[in-house]
Design a protein that fits this description.
The chain is of the alpha/beta class. It folds into two domains: 127 residues, Rossmann fold; 55 residues, Winged helix-like DNA-binding domain superfamily/Winged helix DNA-binding domain (Arc Repressor Mutant, subunit A, Orthogonal Bundle), CATH 1.10.10.10. The chain is 49% helix and 12% strand. The protein has nine helices and five strands; from the N terminus they run E-H-E-H-E-H-E-H-E-H-H-H-H-H. The radius of gyration is 19 Å and the shape is elongated.
Length: 209
Amino acid sequence: MATLGKILIIDDNPKLLEDALPMYGYEVSAANDGLMGLKVLCEEEEPFDLVLLDVVMPNLDGWETLKRIRENEATKHIPIIMLTAVNEDNKQISGLKFGADDYITKPFILPNLLARIEALLRRSKWVNERKHASALPFVSSEPIVPLTSREKEILTLVAKGKSNADIAQKLFVREVTVKTHLNSIYKKLNVDNRVQAVLLAIQTGIIDG
């Protein structure tokens, strides 16, 4: 049975997530500290799609584990969400500088974490498809019409896994306005949907990957 993604939980108390995530379609493995997590990452035959990494752990904390994951050629591209009880902006920013893709503060609400996981996996999939596709099969021979700055802004947010509702809230516009901009983007890029739009825009340099 296909899963939505393969996730490694590195946390000294992983039971909640270990029990919950499979109910939402994810394949899960767990490690109780950073050293064990690094061992599992290196020894697993099938690569993980995402790591949930706790900050406070025995033997090797989350920050050091994160740095070692990013220093390893075999694991450095795996998306990582930090799980932290430290609600301090400077430490969260440090985590992003070390190479974390996102963070969520404990205690967290499970639907919020699930949304972060889904968005990050979606973005990772787009990036991987871009890397492995020398040419996109859906690309039309019709010329691409330049996007407006607002359309580029919206498409960049789409590439980050944001929903239409998220984008509308961030840009202080109605959701129907976002949909109108997206339809204009599809028409200008000669594509059918948001995934195609993001892949083409990244490959052609319209937006950053």
